[in-house]
Amino acid sequence: RAVLGASGTGVLTERGEAEGGPAVAVLVVRSDGPLLASPFLLADREAIDTGAGAELAERAAPAVAEGGCLLILPDAMSLDPHGLPRALADGLGPVPVLGGVAAGSPVFELYAADVATRALPALAVSGARPVVGVAQGCQPIGEPYVVTGGEGNVVRAIAGRRPLEVLREALRAVPDLERRVRQAGVFAGLAINPAKSPLERGDFLVRNLAGVDRETGALAVAEAVRIGQTIQFHIRDAQAAREDLEAMLDRVKAALAGRRPAFGLYFNCAGRGQGLYGVPGHDVTAIRRRLGDWPLVGFFGNGEFAPVGGRNFFHNYTGVLALFPES
Question: What's this model's pTM, rounded to 2 decimal places?
């Protein structure tokens, strides 16, 4: 038996979503077939970083050697959100890493009969590879361009121009700009595979714009950016999030190829939900309408983990859906 869980700002099942108040969501899975689950716990960690990721990868590798995935529910207080998935990728290769970051007040994690903090509970699932969809809630604006100047996370030139000028040009092309920008956030999208053409939704790693230098026109991005990398700005609001979720569900439905999910997991960001859409239960309603009725559980967290373009990343503002089809 394996029991795994985490606190969140809300919880969800196939019946709906509960935010901002006491609630619990539980999914019980029994398998008489090939599906096996191996639990792990790294407790009382001052830093859930590359060291913790390397240790977890070493312990979990035998369980996912023949295929499967790794579910993680780390504590936000000690998490290195980029170092952890990087170390897991180094140790596990292409194995999908899925999960959400524990949230709420207080923040805690569940493992077996214990409640922990500053912990990294994990579950290595073997015998089945889930169908995964990532809805980043964003719409590309403007055109994709190549980064031609910068260092670290600071972009100093895009296609030989000042990045702030390129951003303003992209924003001017947004329909109903004044209303949408008032409600929206603007982000940088970094192409996962710049050789792909054309680049579409889901082809980018979406990151916050962390700062702007109005004198030089440079932009800081919450991710290291390389010269030669393809960048395209994105806008995030309720309209973009709805469209992106529907596009993700279309991709998941196609990948299921007629199979029915035995159960699913949905890791949603605390920045989505009713605060984004203005109505409760939006994402769960859309999932059921598009993919049918089957057991689903999840929570609203401080960040999400999922692969994009075959590589594992930490995300913000996303909805990550993992479906385990019936065998």
Answer: 0.91
